[in-house]
Amino acid sequence: KETGTKPPPESRRRLSSTTSSTLFLKDKASTLQGVLRALQTQKGVMSIGLYATIGGVFLSYITVVPLWLVTDTAEGGYGLSITESGIVMSCSGPVLFLTQPFLAPLLVRWLGFRRSWTLEAVLMGLGLGLTPCLDLLTADPSSAFLGLCLIQVYINVIYQMVLGTCFIFMNNSVSTAIRGTFLGVAHAVASTSRLVLPSLASSLFAWTKGAVRPWPFDHHLSFYLLGVIMVALGLVSLLLPPSIDDKYAEPEATDAEDAAHGRAEGPPAGPGTADPAGKV
């Protein structure tokens, strides 16, 4: 007597494939509807907007700063060599490693995600806007080099804190079922910001470099505008609802949904296992 089960007929295979495709399409449609609903909420739109804009601002900063550092002093720069400029741009790495595990959690425990983000964004904006004012503090090359390193550390440390909190905002805006797609939309929007803002900032710096124009339209105009944008983002973040500090309240699945989920994703029936129709 032969044991085991016979392979299913061709018609049953086609039915199983059609059912799987239908479930897949329904799942994707449900995910898309969930993302569209999230984009109609204040939390969803603002969390993506803040994330996209800060990415463009920071990339604009690290695009313009190297140009500014190697520009001749007669044109408003510091006349640093390529090596010196590289040291300034990379000196924040060890400090980030030492500060991020402690500083960001401390601020969150003290102020919460929303208010700590506001404080961090305003501090970052002030740092960006006041960066060109270093030459007013010292004319000594060694002191100026040290000041440039400290400014770079300051901007990078705060940016990493702001960036991390943005991801918390986005995660707390949607359910886990659509979070991946929602973050994909956020990255797409942020890519556009990172394409447009650095191009504008570098073009603006090239336009003002070496030209004699009244303040604030001098060669530091790019820094001023980036600082204003960050301070404005900090103030706008106060409009975020307080619920952004809390995890998204996941809807409870009904018994019918759980049963359907089990039938759709449960293990295949084997010998001696009852199928949904009750046959063995």
From TrEMBL:
Organism field: Eutreptiella gymnastica
Family matches, as InterPro entries: MFS_trans_sf (IPR036259)
Spans annotated as Disordered: 251-280
Transmembrane segments annotated in the record for this chain: 48-67, 87-107, 119-139, 145-170, 182-201, 221-240
Signal peptide start and end residues: none
The name this protein goes by in its record: Major facilitator superfamily (MFS) profile domain-containing protein
UniProt feature, compositional bias: Low complexity: 265-280
Keyword tags: Membrane, Transmembrane, Transmembrane helix
